[in-house]
Amino acid sequence: MGGTTGDEALVLAEHWLERARPDRALDALSRVTGEEAVSRRAFRIRALAHHLADEDQAAVDIARSGLTVHGPDTGLLGVLAQSLADLGRTAEAERACLDGLALDPQHVWLLCTYAKLCAFAGQHDKARQLLDRAAAEEPEARAVVHTRAVLAIARGDQDEAQRVVAAMLAADPDDAGAHALRGLAATHRGDATTAYAGFRAAAAGNPQNRHVVEAARKLKVANHWLLRPLRPFQRFSAFQVWITVVLIQFGLRAVGLGMVAFPLALAWLAFCAYSWIAPPVVRLLFRKGLLR
Amino acid sequence: MTSDSLGTGRDYRAAGPFPAPRWSVLTPVRQTAAVTSTDPLLQPTLQQTGRGPAPWRLSSQGYVAFFGGSLAGTAVAVANALRLGLPRRTVLGVAAIGAAGLAATAALALVVGGAELGLLRLVPVAAYLGQARLQRDRNRAFVLRGGRHASLLGVGIAAVLGLGLLEVVAIDAMVEAVR
Question: ipTM of this complex > 0.90?
Answer without folding.
Answer: no
